[in-house]
Amino acid sequence: MPSVEYMGKTFTVDEDGFIDSYDNWSQEWVQWVKQQEGIDELTEEHNKVIQVLQEYYEKNGIAPMVRVLSKVTGFKLKHIYELFPSGPGKGACKMAGLPKPTGCV
Q1: Catalytic residue positions?
Q2: CB 18 within 8 Å of CB 1
Q3: According to CATH, what is the number of the domain 3-96?
């Protein structure tokens, strides 16, 4: 597996750039993904999406479907795409340290 070095940390990633294990998630990882996504500044809304994704994953072992993410955060899907330009599956899940979603996230 390839690896990424950022801010003194090394992260093992899969072929799509997702971190190898949720247990290896850190704020340095968030900053690296933020840079890759072209996000200038993380807001409370970004953090809310990340927190919801992580809590759901910790409880269920998978990422929530998009409609669940939208309902729990209170954000319309369009707004989630504004926050995470590559989308809730690729951008938000990656930033939250979740594995690459297999279904409709």
Answers
A1: 104
A2: no
A3: 1.10.10.370
